[in-house]
Structure formats: structure tokens, C-alpha cells
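Bumping with the actual sequence this time:
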Amino acid sequence: MKTGYFHRFAALLCCAALLTASGCSSEPVVTEQIQQTEISLSWWGNDARNKYTIEAVEQFEELHPEIKVKCSYSEWSGYETRNRIQMISDTEADVMQINYGWLEQYSPDGEGYYDIYNLNAMDISQFSEDMLRYGLKNDHLNAIPIAMNAQTVYINKTIYDSYGLDVPKTWDDLFHAAEVMKADDIYPLSAASKAMWLYLITYTEQAANKTIINNSGKLNFNANDFKTMIEFYQRLIDEHVMPQIDFYQRLELDNEKYAGSVAWISDAVNYFGDAVAKGREIVAADYTTIDGTNPGKGWYAKPATMYAVSKNTEHPQEAAILLNYLMNSSEMAELQGIEKGIPLSAAAQETLKEQNLLTGIQYEASQKMEGCTLGELDPVLEKGGMIDDFFAACNDVIYEVKDIDTASSEVYAQIKSYFS
């Protein structure tokens, strides 16, 4: 980054006496000069996130007039694409919001991001060792998680109540709800592609009583398990429980054609803010199980988002000051609230408690997550190519291009390649 100079001039003009015919005398002009360092910050999010983050940066610059922050932000897909290009070309921002899976992608040896352990201005004592380990690669602290995240079942209870239905707890509950709602062309639940993929893994882990990945990090599902996933996906579609992902439309939640959705904790407001504003009662349901027992089996948690510092930064001290502000300051905590989930920083949590900001659907979903023992989501399961391969196989079966045994065997081989 280039270092420039910010000049502020204060003129002190004093007269020894009142204005006379001979004029007034003046003291010399005193010039105050502050050296200002420019660093950059990047993040992704919706308009609300952009607004409060920009406001936070403005407050930061007031607190630290020696630091100028250049902001770069966009929605998720554009950010992901730009980040990939910047990481390859070493032009990434000094401080950046990153996805958990990017640690393995860009820093498998721990050298892809700056080692935060070496940044004294960042107070990592506000985070537990259990939380910091998510950002460790080869003993280098590459990133710090902002909050934890998990796929959650959100239910528009107002719709369910109108049909005399309880909030679903089991897969059978969902199929029963579909029988009741089908006449009005309402789906009891919905999910976009990644959420659907993880939801199907949850069902199959419960049905097969094994995890998709073993303790050694290898694929534990076989072709028959993927057959189970495909068959269950088709059943969800055929019996009008959930729409096919190719026809999923986020706006149908607002239109109340979907009576619920599987989504991240961090997306709760994005998905259901309008419904809450309309007075609808939205609840975070129990994690779906086969028989209503052992909640959390087959469900996974991960860092919602993380902050990292560029390994190429020319201003690590200033970057660390900004990072600490974003993670631990009361100013940022109040502006951000729980939009990204319940903050892991003890200092930020204390601020939210004092301001009575630990409320709402996201807080409820976070409490569900903390009340269950969830597995740790392996980043490999979020690889877009793998998810695309799976749903391509599903479509081959749905549209009778291939029989299910062939499709299952082929997608098993494809997914297995991601673990080699």
C-alpha cells in the first residue's frame, strides 16, 4: 500500500490589540501534520451488512486518524470470484473476510495468510483455544472465526398453525405436513443446493448410522449410500415436501409458498426478515431426526465467517489494529449485533449482553446449535464441483437418463476423487 500524508492546517491569528489604523499583528501559522497509512478491507454481504460495516470503518478512522481504510465489498458470488483472482495474483486486501474452506484452498501449509500470532495489536485472548483452532494451519494462526454457523431448520409457525400442524421434528412430520399443504401448493420446507446437499447427508447418516467422512478424513459413504441420498431427494420432490433445487426461488419464502427453509444461522434475517416484519412467527425448529431422538446426529457446524490478514500486507501493525477493532471493539459489536451470528469474542459478547442485543431468530438458532453436539463440517463437503456432480446425478435419475444404480455408482466415483 502507498503511504500518503494528510495535512490539517490550523491558523492561529491573534491581534495584540483591537484593530487600529496600523492594522493587527498575527502569530505564525502552526501546521499540524499527521502521517496517514492506507490499508484495505474486503468483505461480502447484503446491503445491511455493507451499511453497518462502512459505518464501523468511519468510526474506526475517527479513533485512528493515522489510518485510512479503503473498502471493497460485494455479494457472495462476485466476492468469491474476485477473491480467487486476487489470491492468485497476490493483490488481496490487507484485512479480509474469508470463508472457512479457503484455508485449505489457499493455505494448506499455513503460509497463505499472515500468522496472526505475530500481530501483537490483535487481542486473541478474547477467544478460546477451541475457537482459534479453526484458523490454525500448520501451527500458523491464519484466521479468526467471527461466529459459528450451522444449517438450521426455520419454520414459519404462522403457516403451520393455520393448518393445525406442529413444528416438525422428524422426517415423517415433514411428509405429513406435505399431505396437508399440498392442496394449496405450499411446500413445508425448502432449501437451496448446498443446504439441500447437507440435509440429504444428514438423513443418510442417520439412516445408515455412519458418517460421510471417517476419522481419517476419507470418504466413508459408498455407492449404496449415494443411492439412498438420491432416492430420498426424489421422494422429497415427488411428495411435495421440498421443491427441486433447479426450481427453488428464494422469493417464495416471502410469498409464503414455502413454509420453511433449511439455511445457515447467519442467513436467518436474510431469509425471514420480511416475514418477521409482517408479523409472522418464525422459529428455529429442532434438528430433523428419524425418530425425534438424538438431535444433532448428522448435523454439522463450522465458522460462519472468518477474518484473515494478507501475507503480502506492507502494514501489518495497522492491519492488526483494524482486525482487533472488527473483532473485539464495543463499537463494532453494537453495529454488527448478531447479523453474522453470536460473536465468539468475549469482549463483543459482553457488549451485546449489556445492550440487550442477544435476541431474535438468529440468537434462537445459535442456542439450538449450542444445545446439541454437532460434528465439525469438513470444508471438502462445501466444494461446489462435488455438489454439482451430485445433483447432476439426481437429475439423470429424475429425468430417466440413467437408472439409479448407474447414477449412484458414477457419482460415488466422482465424489471419491475429491478425497484423493
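The C-alpha cells above came from a reply further down the thread. Residues 151-301+377-419 form a domain with the D-Maltodextrin-Binding Protein; domain 2 fold (CATH 3.40.190.10).
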